């Protein structure tokens, strides 16, 4: 009986986190590449995101080594191959910024992957990785959040 | 011996009439277990059938007893899962869970501001990169 409960709970947790599972960069979200220590992970679904015209927001932020950054960056670049549109910025041969839009779902829902890295004082890199789904567009988000 | 068998025959007859007590039925069963007199074959068959049927019924109910519990658990978890999949607002910082909507949404806004608030940066970097490379 306990096994059945555990299995169902694991399936539910997996389903809640598996939205970006089809992405090459999924290991960066699920803890395989970025360790829990020092990591900030945010997962929002539902009505809280209505104002942003999003239905899912999943972000991971951390300070990581150059090697880990390069691993994540190469996965993001792999994902960019499936993009319908993308903006990418490479600084000193390293991916520093990416806004990737994927094919909209049949329900018209947009899927977006965003990446940003910045060198920290200690030589490591601050990285932000975001996966979003919703009816909004990248342009809408830029308008809403432009300073 | 004949008298004894007559006693059991009488008890068997009363059993078929439905007039035996529980103790008498137990005694009859014990008697049949240690006796192969063909006159009691009918009674043996009926009592054996009833015992086998009761055991089978107990086994069936034993096998099926967990189904309602699992069904209830699945229903509760699916309901919880649907609720969770519809509305989730959570932040994990160094493994610590924060579920205060205000704090979580502030983080969402800060992250989006950081990503989109400086949207011209990429273009400027591109130009500078082109100039100096």
Descriptive overview:
- The complex is a heterodimer of chains A (147) and B (133).
- Chain A has a six-stranded antiparallel sheet, covered by helices on one side.
- The termini of chain A are far apart.
- Chain A is of the alpha+beta class.
- Chain A has helices at 2-17, 26-29, 66-80, 138-145, and strands at 40-45, 54-64, 85-91, 94-102, 110-119, 125-134.
- Chain B is mainly α and 133 residues long.
- In chain B, helix 1 (2-17) packs across helix 2 (22-33).
- Classes of the chains: A alpha+beta (147), B mainly alpha (133).
- The A-B interface holds A 1, 4-5, 8-9, 12, 15-16, 36-49, 52, 57, 59, 61, 87-91, 96-97, 99, 114, 116, 128, 130, 138, 141-142, 144-147 and B 66, 69-70, 73-74, 77, 80-81, 84-95, 101, 104-105, 107-109, 111-119, 121-122, 125-126, 129.
- Strand 1 (40-45) of chain A pairs antiparallel with strand 1 (88-93) of chain B, so a sheet runs across the interface.
Topology diagram in text:
The complex is a heterodimer of chains A (147) and B (133).
Chain A (H helix, E strand, L loop, with lengths): L1 H16 L8 H4 L10 E6 L8 E11 L1 H15 L4 E7 L2 E9 L7 E10 L5 E10 L3 H8 L2
Antiparallel strand pairs in A: 1-2, 2-6, 3-4, 4-5, 5-6
Chain B lengths: L1 H16 L4 H12 L7 H24 L1 H21 L1 E6 L2 E3 L2 H16 L4 H12 L1
Antiparallel strand pairs in B: 1-2
Helix pairs in contact in B: 1-2
Q: Which terms summarize this structure?
A:
heterodimer; A: 147 residues; alpha+beta; six-stranded antiparallel β-sheet; 6 strands; globular; B: 133 residues; mainly alpha; 2 domains; two-stranded antiparallel ribbon; 6 helices; rod-shaped; disordered C terminus
Question: How many whole angstroms does the radius of gyration of chain B measure?
Answer: 40 Å
- How many angstroms does the end-to-end distance of chain A come to? 54 Å
The portion of residues forming beta strands of chain B comes to 5-15%
Class inferred from helices and paired strands of chain B: mainly alpha
Strand order in space, largest sheet of chain A = 1-2-6-5-4-3
- Give the spatial strand order of the biggest sheet of chain B: 1-2
**N- and C-termini, Cα separation of chain B:** 118 Å
Question: What number is the mean pLDDT of chain B?
Answer: 74
Number of helices of chain A: 4
Number of helices of chain B: 6
Radius of gyration of chain A: 16 Å
Q: How would you characterize the largest beta sheet of chain A?
A: 6 strands, antiparallel
Low-confidence stretches of chain A: none
Query: Approximately what portion of the residues of chain A adopt beta-strand conformation?
Result: 35-45%
Number of strands of chain B: 2
Helix and strand succession of chain B?
HHHHEEHH
Number of strands of chain A: 6
Domain module count of chain A:
1
Class computed from helices, strands and strand pairing of chain A:
alpha+beta
Average pLDDT taken over every residue of chain A: 87
Helix content of chain A: 25-40%
